[in-house]
């Protein structure tokens, strides 16, 4: 995937920040929000940010019953009992999640925004990891389209799928977790296509945070495929900057006001969010002739070597980020 060019700009004035907050509040105020995995970590931060910006109600769906009840009680003290709902359900279990959405559709006058956040990191139990991080995300995403879609006589809405922003060189010890998070990008781009948006009115966005300080991150060295990997993994983590869930939640509020359906956004290193563009596979072809890669000429154009590609080569290797 390629990053869009980032242009440095002056720091926003107090007036500009106030205008941005007004726009965000207009998008969130009076809306009903559903957040999976909202009892702790990043999901819990999302809960508080939506309520802070005037959400009508926020529903937490979480597999951890004790943590969910604690989160509900804490939030209720700050915003009131009528603002928060907790439902205990496992996202990887379709019948449980369907029942949760059905119950919420009767408790709320509408479901307007769904943050598809629930996930685990446990390479040793990779079957469960795939079940939650891919199966669970698909369950929630498809049900969100059903319970928000205009084709189902609903009002449309926003679905935010939470992925991960990776430096593969530093996360080589997490092959299964990495694979599950890459899947979220494909899911979001497909469901966010114009075809689906025109039919459902649901805007689908992928949000991929960089390294974020949560219990999942802190415990990750103990969840690798092999203990032998731990030293290298910890060393790699120490070289990376870590951000707080608060920063990611603030970034999501900004993304909601401008992100197009099918787009992929990153919040990394505590900085402002930016969009990632996935190149078309056709421009990523590397062509071969007689088992040799294309010849690179010494001649340069604008400082770059010219790669001689034969037009009659019909075979090649294709890769897609």
From TrEMBL:
| SUPFAM superfamilies with a match to the protein in the record | NAD(P)-binding Rossmann-fold domains
Gene3D superfamilies referenced in this protein's UniProt entry, alphabetically: NAD(P)-binding Rossmann-like Domain
Bilayer-crossing residues are none
Which reaction(s) are listed as its catalytic activity? 15-oxo-(5S,6R)-dihydroxy-(7E,9E,11Z)-eicosatrienoate + NADH + H(+) = (5S,6R,15S)-trihydroxy-(7E,9E,11Z)-eicosatrienoate + NAD(+); resolvin E1 + NAD(+) = 18-oxo-resolvin E1 + NADH + H(+); lipoxin A4 + NAD(+) = 15-oxo-(5S,6R)-dihydroxy-(7E,9E,11Z,13E)-eicosatetraenoate + NADH + H(+); resolvin D1 + NAD(+) = 17-oxoresolvin D1 + NADH + H(+)
Q: Name one Pfam family in it.
A: adh_short
* GO CC terms, sorted: cytoplasm
State whether keyword Oxidoreductase applies: yes
Q: Could you tell me the EC number(s) of this protein?
A: 1.1.1.141, 1.1.1.232
For the keyword Oxidoreductase, the answer is yes
> Which key words are in the record?
Oxidoreductase
- Which is an annotated GO molecular function term of this record? 15-hydroxyprostaglandin dehydrogenase (NAD+) activity
Q: Cross-referenced InterPro entries, in alphabetical order?
A: NAD(P)-bd_dom_sf, SDR_fam
Biological role stated in the UniProt entry: Catalyzes the NAD-dependent dehydrogenation (oxidation) of a broad array of hydroxylated polyunsaturated fatty acids (mainly eicosanoids and docosanoids, including prostaglandins, lipoxins and resolvins), yielding their corresponding keto (oxo) metabolites. Decreases the levels of the pro-proliferative prostaglandins such as prostaglandin E2 (whose activity is increased in cancer because of an increase in the expression of cyclooxygenase 2) and generates oxo-fatty acid products that can profoundly influence cell function by abrogating pro-inflammatory cytokine expression.
Family classification = Belongs to the short-chain dehydrogenases/reductases (SDR) family.
Q: What is this protein called?
A: 15-hydroxyprostaglandin dehydrogenase [NAD(+)]
User: Organism source for this protein?
Assistant: Aphidius gifuensis
């Amino acid at each position: 995937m390629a990053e869009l060019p980032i242009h440095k700009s002056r720091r926003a004035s107090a007036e500009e920040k106030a205008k941005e907050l007004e726009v965000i509040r207009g998008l969130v105020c009076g809306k009903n929000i559903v957040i999976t995995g909202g009892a702790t970590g990043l999901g819990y931060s999302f809960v508080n940010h939506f309520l802070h910006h005037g959400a009508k109600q926020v529903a937490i769906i979480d597999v951890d019953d004790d943590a969910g009840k604690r989160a509900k009680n804490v939030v209720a003290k700050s915003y009131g009992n009528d603002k928060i709902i907790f439902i205990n359900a496992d996202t990887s279990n379709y019948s449980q999640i369907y029942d949760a959405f059905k119950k919420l559709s009767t408790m709320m006058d509408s479901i307007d925004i769904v943050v598809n956040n629930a996930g685990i990191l446990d390479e040793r139990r990779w079957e469960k990891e795939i079940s939650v991080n891919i199966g669970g995300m698909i369950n929630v995403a498809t049900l969100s389209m059903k319970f928000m879609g205009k084709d189902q006589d609903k009002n449309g809405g926003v679905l935010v799928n939470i992925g991960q922003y990776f430096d593969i060189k530093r996360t080589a010890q997490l092959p299964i977790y990495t694979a599950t998070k890459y899947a979220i990008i494909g899911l979001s781009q497909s469901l966010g296509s114009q075809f689906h948006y025109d039919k459902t009115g649901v805007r689908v966005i992928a949000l991929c945070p960089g390294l974020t300080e949560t219990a999942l991150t802190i415990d990750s060295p103990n969840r690798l495929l092999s203990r032998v990997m731990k030293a290298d993994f910890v060393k790699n983590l120490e070289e990376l900057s870590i951000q707080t869930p608060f920063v990611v939640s603030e970034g999501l509020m900004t993304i909601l006001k401008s992100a197009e359906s099918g787009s992929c956004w990153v919040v990394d290193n505590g900085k402002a969010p930016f969009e990632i563009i996935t190149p078309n596979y056709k421009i990523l072809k590397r062509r071969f002739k007689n088992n040799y890669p294309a010849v690179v000429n010494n001649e340069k154009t604008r400082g770059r070597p010219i790669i001689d590609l034969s037009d009659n080569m019909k075979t090649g290797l294709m890769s897609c980020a």
